[in-house]
Amino acid sequence: MARRKKQRRPATEPAANPEANAATPARSRRGLYALVVAVILIAIAVDVWWILRPGKAPDVAEVSAPTVVTARYVGSEACAGCHAQAYAAWNDSHHALAMQHATAQTVLGDFDDATFRYAGTTTTFFIRDGKHFVRTDGADGKLADFEVQYTFGVDPLQQYLIAFPDGRLQALSASWDSRPEGQGGQRWFHLYPDEKVDYRDELHWTRRSQNWNFMCADCHSTEVRKQYDAGADTFNTTWADLTVGCEACHGPASAHLEWTEAQPANTHKGLAAVLDERASATWANDAATNKPARSHPREHDTEIEVCAQCHARRSQIAEGYRAGLPFLDFYRPALLSPGLYHADGQQRDEVYIWGSFLQSRMYHA
User: Fold this and answer.
1) Where are the domains of the chain?
2) What is the pTM of this model?
3) Distance CA 313, CA 333 (A)
């Protein structure tokens, strides 16, 4: 049997050194420890910079920032007694009209047996026994009668919500253009005029992309709890106020009502957040740049975070936000990605978020 020749170690390869090999893991561990320590020091430095950065939000002790209080929701009507002027202004606002029960007073669309044809389907809007109905294609593509339970928005368009037995509220894609007739309004139009959406499409009004519970409720009602049952694929959604009430921005008011009785000496008056940051601020165009300039620097982020819950490009990661709680605990803002923002940081396309997208479709239709 032929003997296998013994392979020689190349002359350039150093001889094995047990002591050097034993020292290698120790050096590796020391390098790893040094890297970990460096990362920790960098993180601490970033935290210190964030706390001390120019224009930072001061601590609660520095300004009248919100004091988180324990309270329950009492409804917007409870505010009217002491805040009659503010309540009257709110009562006629888009916030107050964001979502309403469908009645003869709240429905703006033509339900006098009006018809609208789209993608081969003729949709009919009519009234039966004092209730508003729409005859259109359902989830199976067949025509059926659906009762309108709620109105959704008011100007420049109004949508309509249909309730299903599994707790879903679905937004009809056939919507009413509520602008004056002279501006091209007072007509039915479809949100997707060019797509020819039918019952098999994810954009169909019966599908998840048009689901109020998941897509819309958080910003059109107050203190929403979706209560989705994944096992049964059902919703049992609740709210404290059907529409965007006073407490949607100011937080639950029961502690404030209690304060009005005794008026103890405290700065927050039982409010979840004191929204006074803008009270003395004014804006004017800078003559040199023609850009708006604020009269004095912003002191904290409370009001921005309250508005951002609905007027920012963001996704919801948790329920339960209210004024005074950290915005980032409940929402994830969209980053400055191309197509989402203008070069100066302003949001592109969406002012009322989803509403402005619908508006752009309405003008295109």
Assistant:
1) 97-243, 278-361
2) 0.73
3) 6
